[in-house]
Amino acid sequence: MAEKKIMLGNEAIARGCYEAGVKVSAAYPGTPSTEISENIVKYDEIYAEWSPNEKVAMEVAIGASLAGVRSVCSMKCVGLNVAADPLFTMSYIGVTGGLVVVVADDPGLYSSQNEQDTRAVARACKVPVIEPSDSSEAKEYIKYAFELSEKYDTPVIFRTTTRLAHSQGVVELNERVEKEDIPYEKNIRKNVMMPGNAKVRHLYVEERENRMSAEADAFPINRIEMRDTKIGVITSGIPYQYVREAMPDASVLKLGVVYPLPKDMVKDFASKVDVLYVIEELDPIIEEQVKALGIECHGKDLLTVQGEYSSNMLKEKVLGQSVSVNEPANVPVRPPILCPGCPHRATFHVMKKLGLHGAGDIGCYTLGAVDPLGVVDTTVCMGASISTLHGMEKARGKDYVKNWVAVIGDSTFMHTGVNSLMNMVYNQSTGTVIILDNSTTGMTGHQDHAGTGKTLKGDIVNSIDLVKLCEGMGISNVFVQSPLEINEFEALLKREVSKDELSVIIAKYPCALLDKKKITKQYKVDNEKCKKCGMCMKPGCPAITKTADGFVKVDDTLCNGCGLCAQLCKFGALNLVEV
To answer: How far apart are the first and last CA of the chain?
Structure first.
């Protein structure tokens, strides 16, 4: 009897890749997709890497596919934007070994800067989309995705969502099925996308899409569940679970392949039910296609295009039922905040003292936008901080950006910041860039990158030297300074922003959560010296609070002895002691 195990959706996807005979995996960490690669790397049969960004990851997987093996690349929804360039063209080229792109959407915006729907991108680049509803399906469906990829000579997008990625279910474990490497065959007309070849391949893509649509009715992961015919629902993914809970007697057309649509199956199902609903989170991708077939249905006229759904929402909006829910407890709002001992807090404290604005980026340091720091003024996408600062200078002049700096993390700098800094050099900008080097990819769970000297497989390698990299671009003003030495950091930053030259300050200090050793020293307050001035509380460290009598108190469950508070106290009231 096959072994069964409870797995996260992401863990099940990794297992499915293993069982499907995948040999190469490439990804850039991004919630909610990160754990896929962190589980794939546990299988020695699969080469797995953190690539510097999603475009590179896609191209690595493409290379493996063209070399004749099954490959996978994983990313979150906004990462697909970075990888779209090679994906759109790979749709024309097709595959040799199966190529699956796992994309985790984020309904509800738990960890993303927009709420995009990957299915819309898939339609634009004309590649099929498969979507599971639980961990068991996640494992089995991704194996089918590789079969579909090779059968139809196409990349396949495997769409998940935050709820699926991070929920658990029972998965049956099977043996790995090794796939023989497919011999390479030189084929310029197919694999080299110059305009003349692309015109021919475009015709192939359209024919492929029509063929898949015609055959989609026979895809085994599309199924009809006939029950009471008064209500029929077309759905897929996690919303299927909500439909079954809210409307257990309804007939359901459950789509495993959500694009292209099985048109005949849809028509047949719709003809057998009195009222048809399309239940899908985010955009009306399925609904619009159903209506284009001339079929009347309800969907976004009742339900929102924003956020996650729930069974209670369906009961209320679709069935018109009054749903009683427990009132949430009346608790204070808990805003996100930098960890105790985070070096970014010191950087932002100095920026605030100097009255500087920050063009921000994606990462923990986005929290520099919230009180009491409030110095990060913009956040767009990975690498945008540096380009934004450059654009500001070209719009308003050198003096304008003396009140601004770009702030970007070390992993994000490797991701897309390098090209942006190169652009500042090439087009003669004079702004100041702060690389917040905490030696990890912090927000997604401390993954390594090209600057840490360690691979996803755990191999120790040469790390990219940020100083040499910047100097190699021709930047003469490159400095490394711990932000927790706040007087020195303040003097350096004040000097550099006043220059009419490009400067890079590498604010280097490890993430407070990287050191796994037991904390041996913490700060304690001497109430006899404390003047209740509140200077130590200005950076907003959660380890420091004020007591009822106005004194400050250091929480010994949070303090890690970073020393920022002690440097701000002018009266020596904070003392480092052994614990």
So the answer is: 53
Q: What's the pLDDT score for residue 329? A: 67
- The rounded distance, in Å, linking the Cα atoms of 36 and 445 is 13
pLDDT at 336: 79
Element (H, E) at 90: helix 77-93
Quote the distance between the C-alpha of residue 14 and its chain's center: 17
- 50, β-bridge pairs: 27
| 558-568 pLDDT, tens digit each | 998 999 999 99
Nearby residues of 377 by Cβ (< 8 Å), 6 or more positions away = 357, 358, 359, 360, 369
What backbone torsions phi and psi does residue 575 show, to the nearest 5 degrees?
-120, 140
Element (H, E) at 577: strand 574-578
pLDDT at 182: 95
Helices marked H in 153-273: 162-165, 188-191, 195-215, 239-246, 263-271
CA distance 219 to 498: 64
Q: Kindly give the parts of the chain with pLDDT less than 70.
A: 325-329, 516-517
Classify residue 279 by burial, with Cβ atoms within 10 Å: 0-12, 13-18, 19+: buried
Over residues 112-132, the pLDDT tens digits come to 888 999 999 999 999 999 999
Alpha carbon dihedral 83, 456, 562, 339, in 10-degree steps, equals: 50
Strand order through the sheet with 257-259: 47-50, 24-27, 71-76, 99-105, 156-161, 129-130, 257-259
C-alpha 540/C-alpha 373 separation (Å) is 7
Q: Are 538 and 506 in contact (CB under 8 A)?
A: no
Q: What pLDDT sits at residue 548?
A: 85
Complete DSSP assignment for 317-349: HTS------PPPP--------PPTT-HHHHHHH
> How far is Cα 545 from Cα 486, in angstroms, rounded to an integer?
21
